[in-house]
Specification:
By secondary structure, the chain is of the alpha/beta class. 27% of the residues lie in helices and 25% in strands.
């Protein structure tokens, strides 16, 4: 039996509007305890964390003199080593790492637990998760080459694995298992004032004599250059209050009927049950779709002809060279989103 724990770092989560309560809350149901290297900062973050009985606080103070983001890996490793000290030589202990703007979806809990069990039995010591990077809204996913498509977020604790660099990933692993479990990354979706302040503060961790204001403004302007795709799949339920607070949409209105060209046997029954439509018409060919519905039909396996005539422009993966093809289920989510068709969160 695998024993799961969480570990992470945090500073000024309230001040910079991080989704840290949602992040920690999404991890809590599947771990025994979360180890948090916490700098008290200059806001009320510590008060909020103290309300969470599932979090063990590891007091720490960030060394702001470290550049290139190194303080982030230093703090991550502080939490990791505190966790290792407590679990000792437990060969079945794994740690799941989430940063303060990363959230797990309950739909993926079972997938994740099964994959960690499999990774343990087959000699893997690190697990890489899929990433959904939301850009400026909860319904737009960045997929261009600059965005990492997956990253290690679970490690076997009895190993030499450690965080490094600016804590984007880990090193000293031997064998990576790739799970379909997803990390919902909300770091670029928050109140604009907090977002600017957070970007300015993070800039100090990387740069010295640099005009951070100029970099900030350039970064916001360059946002339009990101290749993004619409996303109307479900979000972790723990994010609902935050999404509504930002005047964003939680769920799209249900469609009366939709036409999908493809084979329903390729997709999970659970996913199909969540499609927000009163009637779903599955067709083997686009020729079987009524003419007045062709503009809005969803083609699951578009041909070059379909792409030329803009019937579908959804790729089968992110554009990074490191990206693996999406699963059939996630591909369908993105294809339906392209046509403005949403999903219902299961009760």
């Amino acid at each position: 039996m695998i024993n799961l724990y969480g570990f992470t770092l945090l500073r000024n989560g309230v001040k910079y509007d991080y989704s840290f309560t949602e992040s920690l809350g999404s991890l809590a149901p599947i771990v025994k305890k979360i180890y948090l290297a916490l700098d008290p900062g200059d806001d009320t973050t510590q008060n909020e964390i103290q309300k969470m009985p599932f979090v063990k606080i590891i007091p720490s103070v960030w060394d702001m003199n470290l550049k290139s983001g190194l303080v982030l890996s230093v703090e991550t490793n502080i939490a990791l080593e505190a966790l290792r000290a407590d679990v000792g030589t437990d060969d079945f202990a794994w740690g799941i790492y989430l940063q303060a703007d990363e959230v797990l979806h309950p739909d993926d809990y079972e997938i994740l637990k099964q994959d960690i069990e499999k990774a343990q039995s087959e000699g893997f010591d690190a697990i890489s998760f899929r990433y959904l990077h939301f850009w400026q809204t909860h319904h737009q996913v960045a997929v261009s080459k600059r965005w990492y498509p997956h990253e290690i977020r679970a490690i076997k604790l009895k190993s030499p694995i450690e965080s490094w660099g600016d804590a984007q990933g880990f090193r000293n692993f031997k064998k990576i298992y790739y799970t379909e479990a997803r990390i919902y990354h909300y770091g670029h979706v928050r109140e604009q004032a907090s977002y600017k302040e957070k970007t300015r503060e993070m800039g100090k961790l990387y740069h010295t004599a640099v005009d951070l204001e100029e970099r900030l403004e350039k970064g916001l302007k360059d946002g339009g250059k990101h290749k993004c795709l619409p996303y109307f799949g479900t979000h972790p339920p723990i994010m609902k209050e935050r999404i509504l607070r930002m005047n964003d949409i939680w769920e799209l209105e249900e469609k009366n009927q939709i036409y999908i060209v493809g084979n329903p046997e390729k997709y999970s029954k659970k996913l199909i049950s969540q499609i927000s439509a009163k009637k779903i018409n599955w067709c083997q060919s686009s020729n079987l779709v009524p003419e007045d519905q062709k503009l809005n039909m969803v083609i699951t396996e578009p041909t070059w002809f379909d792409r030329i005539f803009k019937r579908s422009s959804t790729p089968n993966k992110m554009y990074s060279k490191l990206a693996l093809p999406w699963s059939n289920d996630f591909q369908l989510i993105m294809q339906l989103s392209e046509k403005g068709i949403g999903f219902k969160a299961l009760k």
